[in-house]
Amino acid sequence: MSSGNGPGPDPTEEELAAMDRDELVKLGGKLDGVEIVDYPDPWPVKGTKAEKRAERVVTMWFLLAALAGAAFFVALIWWPWQYEPYTNADGHFWYSLYTPVLGVTLGVSVLALSVGILVYSKKFVPQELAVQQRTDNQGQGSREVDRKTIVAHLADSGERSTIARRSMIKRSAGLGAGVLGLGAVALPVASFIKNPWAEADTKYSLAHTGWQKEFPDEVVYLRRHTGDPGEISLVRPEDLEAGGMETVWPFRESERGDHTALAHALKRSDNPVMLIRLRADDGKKVIKRKGQEDFNYGDYYAYTKICSHVGCPTSLYEQQTNRILCPCHQSQFDALTYAKPIFGPATRALAQLPITVHTDGYLIARHDFIEPIGPGYWERKS
C-alpha cells in the first residue's frame, strides 16, 4: 500500500482520471519513494519455443491437478468403501485401497496445483528489483491517489506476467482449482449424508452401536481381539489384573462361524470399549454418574474408546492416576468420576457401557450405551 509521503503536491482528480496505467504506475512509485532497479521482461522475444514450452509445462501441471481432483471425487463417492472380509480376496483388495486412493489423489491434486502456480510465477511473473522507503502515513491510511496508483500497479503486474493472453493456462488453472474445490466440498459433505435417526431402534443408527441387542434376550459378550477375526476369545473377570485395561468388542453366538460378521464387529468404528479393572482401594473412591449407578460390575468399568471431542481412540490408561488419555488432542478423563473430562478440549464424559457377568462366567453387556458415543452431531440430545 502506498504511504503517501512522496514529494510534491498530489494531482487533482481530473489529472488522475486523465492518466493512463503507465503514468499511474510511475506516479505511484514516485509517491512511495520507490526506485525500480531492474524490471526485466521474462520473455523479451515473444512466441519463442522456450516460452511455448514453459506455457505447456504450466498447463500440464494444472491439468494433472484437475485429473487427480476428479479421481478423488469419483473415488470418494463410488469406490467400494464397505468392509469386505479376507475370505473375499478380490473384494477385500479393493476395499483396502479406499483410504490410500483418497490420500494419493487428493495429495497429487494439491501438489500439482501448487507446482503449477510456482512454475508460472517463476517463468512468467517479472522478478523486479526495487528499493522503497516505507512509512505508515502517520496512521492516516490511504488517500485516493494511493488507491488509484496501487490498483494500477496490480494491473501492471498482471499485464507484465502475460496472464491475460495465456488462455490455455487460465483455463487449465481454473479447471484444476475448480475440480479440487469440488472434491474439497464433497469431503465434509459426504460425512453428513447419513441420517442419525434412520433405523433409530437398531444398531445401525448413529444413536446406537454394535452393542445394541437385536432381540430382548440376546446375550452380547465382551470379546478380545487375538489377531484372528475367526477366533472367539471371551473375557472372564479373573482374566484382568487389578489396575489393568483391555479393549473389547461385542460378540453374539449367532455370529460364531460367520467370518464376515465376526470381522465386521472388529472393524466397526463405534464398537471398541475400554474394560478397566480398578484397584480395590481406587474402587472405593468412585463417583458414579446419576442414572448409571449399576453400570459397573464390582471394580470393572467399561467406557467407549471413542473420544467425545472429535472421535479419536482414547487408547491409553494411566494406572497410577486412573486417567483415560486421548493421544490426539490430549484430552484426559477421570475413570474414578464416570470418565468425566478433566483436561483438554473434550467437554463430555465418555459413554459408559453397562456390564455384568453371565451365568457361564463371562462378562457381557447388559444393553447398549444409553447415549450416542463420540463427538456431537446437530441433533444430539446429550
Explain what the structure shows.
- With 382 residues, the chain is α+β, with helices and mostly antiparallel strands.
- It has 3 domains: 49-132; 151-192, no CATH class; 220-365, Rieske Iron-sulfur Protein, CATH 2.102.10.
- The protein is 36% helix and 14% strand.
- It contains 9 helices and 13 strands.
- The strands form 3 sheets. Strands 3, 4, 5, 6, 7, 12 and 13 form a 7-stranded antiparallel sheet that branches. Strands 8-9-10-11 form a 4-stranded antiparallel sheet, with no helix packed on it. Strands 1-2 form a two-stranded antiparallel ribbon.
- Strand 12 (355-357) and strand 13 form a beta hairpin.
- Helix 3 packs antiparallel against helix 5 (98-124).
- The longest helix is centred in the N-terminal third of the chain and has 30 residues, at 49-78.
- The protein is elongated, with a radius of gyration of 32 Å.
- The two termini are 51 Å apart.
- 26% of the residues are buried.
- Residues 1-6 have low confidence and may be disordered.
- Its main location: membrane.
- Pfam families: QcrA_N, Rieske.
- One of its GO terms (molecular function) is metal ion binding.
Please name the CATH architecture of the largest domain. Answer: 3-layer Sandwich
> How many domain regions?
3
What oligomerization state is this entry in?
single chain
Strand content: 5-15%
Helix segment tally: 9
Major beta-sheet overview:
7 strands, antiparallel
Unreliable stretches, pLDDT < 50, 5 or more residues?
1-6
